[in-house]
Amino acid sequence: MDAQRALLDELMGTARNLTDEENKGYREIRWDDKEVCAFYMVRFCPHDLFVNTRSDLGPCPRVHDQKLKESFEKSPRHDAYVPKFEAELAQFCEKLVMDLDRRVRRSRERLAQEVEPAPPAPLSAEKSEQLSVMEEKIKNLLEQVETLGEAGKVDEAEALMRKVEALNAEKTALAQQPQNGKVLMLAQEKKMALCEVCGSFLVANDAAERTQSHVTGKQHIGYGMVRDFISEFKEAKEKAREEENLSREKEAEERRKHREKEYESRRRSDSGDRDKYHDRDKDRDRYCERDLYRERS
């Protein structure tokens, strides 16, 4: 349906269904109108990148039209508007990335908390009773060992100590036994990782097919485009700034050389005038001396 509508728009114009009365106030939309998406004109619209993903921005409130885009690209004002449109797109994309990076930081903190060892679970009543009975047995056996040792019955005391050691080992094993299998389940859980590009949770060391599926997914590609554009925009801006600085330095150097040249020219001119005046004075003095000599003669 959309394709048919677009074809009719191309053949008959977007005002084909308007009445004569409506046509009087109708004005064709131009690429530089405010209701036209400047992002779509110059590069891409972020609203188109994340459709049906967790980062879906919803439909763009401005007009996307391929014919308007072609008109913009052919316009003599194209080069003048590109920096303005790209700056607006970069500002929008930077806000997207800032919001995403904030979520990534929170998710990273959550992952760090999950990998910390969990506090020991409280013992059940049954296990507590078993441990108490074993501790009482160990206590009684140690008292008997002490009595036998004082009586000089070393062999019997050593035999009881072996029982004490066995009970201690049994007690330790009982205390470390998982509660209802929870510890075992936690140990078997898959470790999670975080994608630094799009903020999605991944299974660490997952199969290559699943990793490839994520990398080629709409959300990952979309945020990759956004981040690449920001980097490209900043690099171009920095390059333009450097070129502008070089141009200013070059102009300043040319002005300095011009001033030096003018100064040297004035200096030579002043020197020439002084020499000319000096020669004129010498000639005048010589004429005066000659006239004076004649008068004396």
TrEMBL record:
Transmembrane segments: none annotated. It comes from the Eukaryota. Residues 124-177 form a coiled coil. The keyword Ribosomal protein does not apply. GO terms for biological process: mRNA splice site recognition. GO terms for cellular component: U1 snRNP. InterPro entries: Luc7-rel. Residues 238-281 are annotated as: Disordered. This is Luc7-like protein 3.
